[in-house]
Amino acid sequence: MIDSKNIEKNQIKDIVSENYVFAAVLHYFGISFFQYEQNSLKEVCEKFKINPRQLVDELEAWAQHKEPNREDLYLHPIEVLVAYLKKKHYYFVRQELPFLSNMVAGIEINEQPYRNVLCDLRIMFPLFVEDFIHHIHEEENRLFNRIKLLHEIENDEFELKESLKILEKSPVASMSEAHEAHDDEMEGIRKLTKNYYLPEDAPVSMKVLYNELQNFEKELMIHAQIEDELLFPKAVELEKEVLRKIRKKILNN
To answer: Taking a C-beta distance cutoff of 8 angstroms, is the pair 118, 109 a contact?
Structure first.
């Protein structure tokens, strides 16, 4: 058990073993935990010129952070939901994926089977990242932009003829079907890691890597559920309402 009062004296390996989140906090400060497992927190902080209290405060802040639940998000208008999803996309791309990529590329273990798994992950994970980022960009460029255009039509920012042209292209329902049919993005990684299973005596760095991969997959599943069960239904309703408004205008003209 780590003594929080004397945390500076503890080895990085022990601190991270006690709380895997600390590995992500170290990454946030530009420190790869697996390169300094045998060093004390004090030694690492002195090397990187960081106040140890800053690290501990950041860890506590991460521990207290709470995501809004689906009920909260449901009660908010679609603009708030889109803003939340954009923020999550940014977090995935700027924080989670670099942290995971850093571990996959940097952890060095000669012991089998970990060495083979890491070699395979170094091929597989960059492909996953590339596909995932493409998926995010496509979603923002198509779906989020479509929602933005629907709001602009609703606010009479387009002429009637132009509004009809926009509404005829890429209806939200067709995007929803394509989104639900999207492949399980982390299936290959899950199979390679045998559902993130590790024996008790596995190296700390592998335990952190598997834990973070599994947590990331859970986050992606929640993210996809929010999109499928909240965002798309709200977008479909918005589109229907805009269509009703445009049809009414046509009848009145």
So the answer is: yes
Is the pLDDT at 4 greater than 80? The verdict is no
Return the pLDDT at 52: 85
What is the Cβ-side half-sphere exposure of residue 175, based on CA atoms within 13 angstroms? Answer: 23
Contact status, residue 196 vs residue 190, Cβ threshold 8 Å: yes
Residues 6+ positions from 6 with CB-CB distance below 8 Å: none
pLDDT reading at 156 higher than 90: no
Characterise 151 by phi-psi region: left (phi > 0), alpha (psi -120 to 50), beta (else): alpha
Helix, strand counts (H, E) of the chain: 14, 0
Task: Report the percentage of the chain scoring pLDDT > 90.
Answer: 53
Contacts 24+ apart (CB under 8 A), 136-141: 136/89, 136/92, 136/93, 139/89, 139/179, 139/227, 140/86, 140/89
Q: What is the pLDDT of residue 253?
A: 67
Query: Which residues on adjacent β-strands are paired with residue 10?
Result: none
pLDDT band (50, 70, 90) for residue 125 = very high
- Determine contact, residues 23/211, Cβ cutoff 8 Å: no
Length in residues, the chain = 253
Q: With bands split at pLDDT 50, 70 and 90, how would you rate the model's confidence at 3?
A: low
Task: Show the tokens assigned to 129.
Answer: 């990242």
